Structure formats: C-alpha cells, structure tokens
Amino acid sequence: MKDFDGKIALVTGTTGIGLATARRLAAGGAAIIACGIDRAANTAMRAELGNSGAEALVVAVDVSVPDQVRDAVAAGVERFGGLDIIVNSAAVHPYGTAVSTDFDIWNRAMSVNVGSIYLTAHFGIPEMIRRGGGAIVNVASVQGFACQQNVAAYATTKGAIHTLTRALALDHARSGIRVNSVSPGSIRTPILEKAARGENGTDADVEAAYKRFGEAHPIGRIGEPEEVAELIAFLCSSKAGFCTGADYRIDGGLTAGIGVK
C-alpha cells in the first residue's frame, strides 16, 4: 500500500516546490487538485500527472481570489469525494524596500503569499472535517527568520505564514487537523532562477549564481524541490501524527550560524 492511497490533496503552485510536491503525493497514491496561475505550467503538470496514471485535476486559479479558490475546492471535492491534505506553495517574490515597493505590489504579495493560505483553509477545512481531519503544510521561508535587504514585502509575508500556521494549528487541532510549515533556504525554483538572473536576464550565468548561492549554505549547495517535497510529504503523512503548529527548516544549515568569520 502506498503512503497516500485514498487521500485527496490540494496543492497551490504548479511550478517549483508545488510541482515537486504534487508529483510526490501523486506517486504516493493521492488524488491531486492542483491550482496555478501559470497556464503553461498547468498544462505541463496536467500532461505529466495524466501520463503517470495519477488522478489529477489541474485548475487555472489566482489563489488570491476567493471565488476562484472556492470553486477549485468545490470542483475537487465533487470529482474525488473530499479533501484530506492542503499544501500551500504558491508565492510571488517582489523586491524592494518599504519605500520603493509600490502599494499594489505590497498588497499582491500579501494576498498571494498569505491570503491564499487563509482562503484554502476557509474553504478547505470544512471539507477536511467531514473526512475526519487532515494535514496542512504551508511553504514559508528562512526569510521569515532572517532576511536579506530589499525584500521587505516577501520577508513580511513569510513571517506571517509562520504565525498563521500556529493559529490554524491551535484552532483546528481538536478537529483532527494538523498544520505545519516548512522554511526552505535557496531551492532550485523559478523564483530562485529569477534572483539568479538579476538584471542580466537571458544573458545571466544561472548555474554560476546557483553555485554562489550554494556556497552561503554550510552544506555547500542549493536545495532541490524534491527534497522539500519529501519533507512536506512526511508532514502530511500519518508518520507525523504528533507534529502540529511547528515550522521545519530545510535550509542546508543556512540559519544555524552567523555570517561573521
């Protein structure tokens, strides 16, 4: 028997960690409800999961829009019969200080990175309760603990995810719902690629940037989305039955020390 046989999982974000997590849960036997705004990525995920034999519903969703999240949850429940797992991975990563960040960009970051977690919980938790409980994992970041310069909006959202995770865990523990977060360091994702390209765009040496980013981590490399997906899968599984209200760092030792040498 696979570790997620009979389970139904909603995953937001169809690239990077979201894609890797959908693959891992599907490989474990879960039916997947995937929500993403990138239509090309949605199409690729739909084809990949379909070709693998997985049960999957991939929906074009702006996860900051209540009606779209509500409809995606409803469509998934109608197709598969319920909801057991939610993994919130969708995110935007604007750059800027509080002074340089436009208010609309600030609000977009809050709505996508934090608001989507509220929305999947708001519409999803009642369905999980009907199934007798479940597990939620929110993808935060080490930037919620110690941030770089020029990422005021992004870092703020990641700190908020830590707090919202604890609130959800406390509010819904007696309903059999466990809620945790993971905080990755530098992971090979489209967001990290954007950082690697910087102002050089298509001319950037992305692999050289990844090597530089990796050297900041004691392990000496950046992480892979599949490594984060394995941690998420553990937290979604019955093996993590006593884990709730906590954050789990997967950062190659990045936040274990201080930068002074």
Briefly summarize what is shown.
GO terms for molecular function: oxidoreductase activity. With 261 residues, the chain is of the alpha/beta class.
Please state the average pLDDT score: 96
Strand line-up in the sheet with most strands: 3-2-1-4-5-6-7
* Beta-strand share of residues: 5-15%
CATH topology heading: Rossmann fold
Give Rg in angstroms. 18 Å
How many domains? The number is 1
Low-confidence stretches: none
List keywords for this structure.
single chain, 261 residues, alpha/beta, Rossmann fold, seven-stranded parallel sheet, 8 helices, 7 strands, 15% strand, SDR_fam, NAD(P)-bd_dom_sf, Short-chain dehydrogenase/reductase SDR, oxidoreductase activity
Describe the structure.
The protein is of the alpha/beta class and 261 residues long. The protein has one domain: NAD(P)-binding Rossmann-like Domain (Rossmann fold), CATH 3.40.50. 46% of the residues lie in helices and 15% in strands. It has eight helices and seven strands; from the N terminus they run βαβαβαβαβαβαααβ. It has helices at 16-27, 39-51, 66-80, 103-130, 152-172, 190-197, 206-215, 225-236, and strands at 8-12, 31-36, 56-60, 85-88, 134-139, 177-184, 247-250. It is globular. 45% of the residues are buried. The model has no long low-confidence stretch (mean pLDDT 96).
